[in-house]
Amino acid sequence: DAGVIQSPRHEVTEMGQEVTLRCKPISGHDYLFWYRQTMMRGLELLIYFNNNVPIDDSGMPEDRFSAKMPNASFSTLKIQPSEPRDSAVYFCASSYNGVDGYTFGSGTRLTVV
Amino acid sequence: AQSVTQPDIHITVSEGASLELRCNYSYGATPYLFWYVQSPGQGLQLLLKYFSGDTLVQGIKGFDAEFNRSQSSFNLRKPSVHWSDAAEYFCAVRNTGTASKLTFGTGTRLQVML
Hints:
The structure holds two protein chains of two kinds.
Chain A: E1 5-7, E2 10-13, E3 19-24, E4 31-38, E5 42-50, E6 53-56, E7 65-71, E8 74-79, E9 88-95, E10 103-104, E11 108-112
Parallel strand pairs in A: 2-11
Antiparallel strand pairs in A: 1-3, 3-8, 4-5, 4-9, 5-6, 7-8, 9-10, 9-11
Chain B: E1 3-5, E2 10-14, E3 19-21, E4 24-26, E5 32-38, E6 44-50, E7 56-58, E8 64-68, E9 73-78, E10 87-94, E11 102-104, E12 108-113
Parallel strand pairs in B: 2-12
Antiparallel strand pairs in B: 1-4, 3-9, 5-6, 5-10, 7-8, 8-9, 10-11, 10-12
């Protein structure tokens, strides 16, 4: 199994640009999670999906952030427009049943200048 | 809401020494608890988990953890640390109810002296 695959690994963009982060979960995993990691705030859950349906998006910081899961094998996290304070490492994780723990991807390091 | 506290931000141990990383949880019933490790530039990897039953849980990479209800703790241990164990370690608790989300502690950075 290739694990959870995220792309790109690194993204540098200018303030105001649209950024799209991508995630492919492990096949057969019904849960998908997006986390953001910063030095100041640690790991924050942004949103999670169950069977492609968003269940809890209370962690999405503001309307500039949106996430979709059009099918069981793909999810995107979009920031439009991006701001320097969005600079962070964004992790995608998936889980078979939401109970036994997650498998994390390697993350996307986003830098907004 | 459930939460975990990792009181140590940074710990340094010598290679071959024993290790204990502290985690305290806040939850009324029996929590679902996890330990993850994050190497530099990598995602988080699950070391072990506790749901119920035996309070001593064995994990990967030679780690174990003991659930202590009276102290509300779930400390991670290793009898002999290797230089490759240098990483950041996160304790996490699973929220109950309809939510399947994990809440993570702030992490403990482990440095290993050769």
